[in-house]
Amino acid sequence: MARGFLPSLLRLLRGKPHLPPSLADNPLLLALVRRRSVRSFRIREIPDDIWSAILEAGRLAPSTVNLQSWSFVLFTSATWQERFERPIPFHAPRGLILLGDTHRNRQVLEAFPIAPLVEYTIAVMNASLAAMAMNIAAEALGVSSVMLSETGRSGLLDAGYLKMKLALPPSVYPLMTILFGYSAAPSPPMPPKLPLEAIAFPGIYRETERAVMEDWLAQMKAGYKASHLFRTSFEDQLAVYRSKIHQAEHDLEEMVFGEQAACRLQEPGE
Amino acid sequence: MARGFLPSLLRLLRGKPHLPPSLADNPLLLALVRRRSVRSFRIREIPDDIWSAILEAGRLAPSTVNLQSWSFVLFTSATWQERFERPIPFHAPRGLILLGDTHRNRQVLEAFPIAPLVEYTIAVMNASLAAMAMNIAAEALGVSSVMLSETGRSGLLDAGYLKMKLALPPSVYPLMTILFGYSAAPSPPMPPKLPLEAIAFPGIYRETERAVMEDWLAQMKAGYKASHLFRTSFEDQLAVYRSKIHQAEHDLEEMVFGEQAACRLQEPGE
To answer: pTM for this structure?
Structure first.
């Protein structure tokens, strides 16, 4: 398979959801597979009833032993500007910072004694379930959204900064910002998704062929080049992540393991 | 507020989704808020087209930098029995074990150099987004599901066991089993959800009042007592988790940090 810019871009643009014809008119299913991350919002407020319904979907998400180990810090564009002294990304009218949170439960329950990584994993897992529920509730209501882990110091790559800005107690972890609003442009094309047989296998783990990954990478590069109008590349985007990653690792390890983190963080060569 | 069994059970049964009347007829939103975890399935197969559509919703879920850091190991009740030498829980006709997976990407990309906790967090987060997308796709198609982290050695509390059974390479983490099928009983009542003001706050973190958590705990205990017909209690269920948690912590730390885990795992008192 040719992996140059144009052939890869063409393959990317041909990527479509695969729904069996028998199910292709199910509106909920269509909302799920047509959902896109939107990075450009119109200047239009989200009505309060719609915003409440989005949050309600998060509140009612499933969680391990129903522990609901999540919190949402809510923002309008004005309160975001006030808290962070810079504009909310992409002119979104509403946003929230998603937190994994096992702090609240500790008031009445020690669910995970001395197992910081299990406890953290459960918090991250459950909070992410709530995030996806809110994302889909928004779609159901005609509201687009995007989950950010880096843009605008808004996710786990800026965990230490967010802990300070949001006054987070121990056992509360900033994971991502979700921005909500009405899309200002037609849906962007679907980013290159791996074929089902590369990610799902019957009964036992199966390695993905290298050629599949190379094809995916070529499509990612082509997609970035096309959609960002040559202003930035996939490699540059990854470089932004990498520039923050060691600080983020340090902050997260301290947040998850506390003093126990020290033995690894201070080892020679670090 | 009285926190005995009956008053708590009554409060639990009165807990309902709060949808604004203006939106209460949105079918997608209703599917989201009415979704329940189902633990009893009819003997009825899931047709192939429906099963494919559920997996497709997972394949197309959003992920950090579109890295799709997830894998799904797929089972029927027969292949589950074969792999694990015991019946699939709750007679489910289909199930999958959800994996966080950054192994595949490493063939072509070192996205997160020397930042194991960041890398792990991103894998857990993204895989959980895919899990929720599949859960909701199933609902849209009349299929119920349940996410398990413990029952039947099926989730992160048995990470070491599952790594062995599924032949998982490094950077692949077993997170949960999701079982799918047609519900054999009317929807169970909604487990006690925290009020929105306890989990969502404008602009900055806010501590939840202890009374709110005590009320929640009383409802949890009453709900377990009522729904499990006195066979097990919430405390007993937590005790099962606790009995596995130190092994799970050890296995997960080794999977995430490799040799670096040793300095913490072998410290005195462990």
So the answer is: 0.95
